[in-house]
């Protein structure tokens, strides 16, 4: 497995296994099979409600802790965010059965971002999180966090796939010392990704599937990817992307597929912000934005 080196020197596998939308009752088996297939980066979140199942799979695997890279994420916290963030991190560690996290991410760029980040800096300094980072931060929010705090986020996990490539965002992150990580790398098959003529043709040239072509494209761009599957044969297929290389022409042809727009949710959309506020507060119509059309956000969260 290839690694990337984060800005603080921590090594992170460039390809891992994500568990978003895997039901808790299926997660332990899925993670066990992923570990057996060779994955060593595991990505979960408090919001996914399957940290305990991930922890059971880790415990039963027999794999030394030092050989694993475990990421979980902090959901948006109410004030006092600094205290709540520590409690949330301790709860995640307990569910995972771990003494430390390899990477702790702020899941959304909302709420008391500074209070949450200061608490995460404390966790990092204490060794409870070897690296800390963010998810779903667009460039303006990311730069604001970088220039106004002591610790720069090591990672920004964002929607990245052939139809939303985030090339300029990646360039900015590189300048800031932030590693880009993809969620939704296979676009959940949207826009007929798995039957796309170009991607299929490239796959035929290498004897690979479309999924392998896309994951190789991400890896070749130095984008960390975390594909998800509950099928062992797909897990094995998805990790088998280190025995071929896309040509410059193939990379350029895939670059032409970029639409420049999200296929899932726009974090600049007021409806999304209002909906995530309700997710945090666990209440409806009391955030002062109840008049925003569609602010129930049904079906909008894909990470």
TrEMBL record:
Keywords of this entry: NADP, Oxidoreductase
Family matches, as Gene3D superfamilies: NADP-dependent oxidoreductase domain (3.20.20.100)
Binding locations of substrate: 107
Keyword NADP annotated: yes
Matching InterPro entries: AKR, Aldo/ket_reductase_CS, NAD(P)_OxRdtase_dom_sf, NADP_OxRdtase_dom
Domain (NADP-dependent oxidoreductase): residue spans on this chain: 21-258
Site (Lowers pKa of active site Tyr): 73
Family statement drawn from the similarity comment of this UniProt entry: Belongs to the aldo/keto reductase family.
PANTHER family membership: 2,5-DIKETO-D-GLUCONIC ACID REDUCTASE (PTHR43827), NADP-DEPENDENT OXIDOREDUCTASE DOMAIN-CONTAINING PROTEIN (PTHR43827:SF3)
Name of this protein: Aldo/keto reductase
Organism annotation: Streptomyces aquilus
């Amino acid at each position: 497995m290839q690694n990337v080196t984060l800005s603080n020197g921590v090594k992170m596998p460039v390809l891992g296994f994500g568990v978003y939308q895997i039901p808790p009752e299926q997660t332990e088996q899925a993670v066990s099979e992923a570990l057996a297939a060779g994955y060593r980066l595991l990505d979960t979140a408090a919001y996914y409600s399957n940290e305990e199942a991930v922890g059971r799979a880790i415990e039963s695997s027999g794999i030394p802790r030092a050989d694993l890279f475990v990421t979980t994420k902090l959901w948006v916290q109410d004030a006092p965010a600094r205290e709540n963030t520590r409690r949330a991190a301790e709860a995640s560690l307990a569910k995972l059965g771990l003494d430390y996290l390899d990477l702790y991410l702020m899941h959304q760029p909302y709420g008391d971002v500074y209070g949450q980040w200061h608490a995460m800096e404390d966790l990092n300094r204490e060794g409870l999180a070897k690296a800390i980072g963010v998810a779903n931060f667009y460039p303006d929010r990311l730069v604001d966090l970088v220039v106004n705090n002591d610790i720069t986020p090591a990672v920004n996990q964002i929607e990245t796939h052939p139809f939303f490539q985030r090339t300029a965002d990646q360039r900015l992150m590189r300048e800031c010392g932030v590693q880009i990580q993809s969620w939704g790398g296979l676009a959940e098959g949207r826009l007929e990704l798995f039957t796309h003529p170009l991607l299929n043709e490239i796959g035929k040239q290498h004897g690979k599937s479309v999924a392998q072509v896309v994951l190789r494209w991400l890896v070749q761009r130095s984008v960390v990817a975390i594909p998800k599957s509950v099928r062992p044969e797909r897990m094995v297929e998805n990790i088998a992307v280190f025995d071929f290389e896309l040509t410059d022409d193939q990379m350029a042809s895939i670059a032409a597929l970029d639409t420049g727009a999200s296929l899932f949710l726009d974090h600049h959309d007021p409806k999304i912000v209002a909906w995530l506020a309700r997710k945090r507060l666990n209440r409806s119509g009391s955030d002062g934005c109840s008049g925003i059309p569609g602010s129930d956000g049904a079906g909008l969260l894909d990470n």
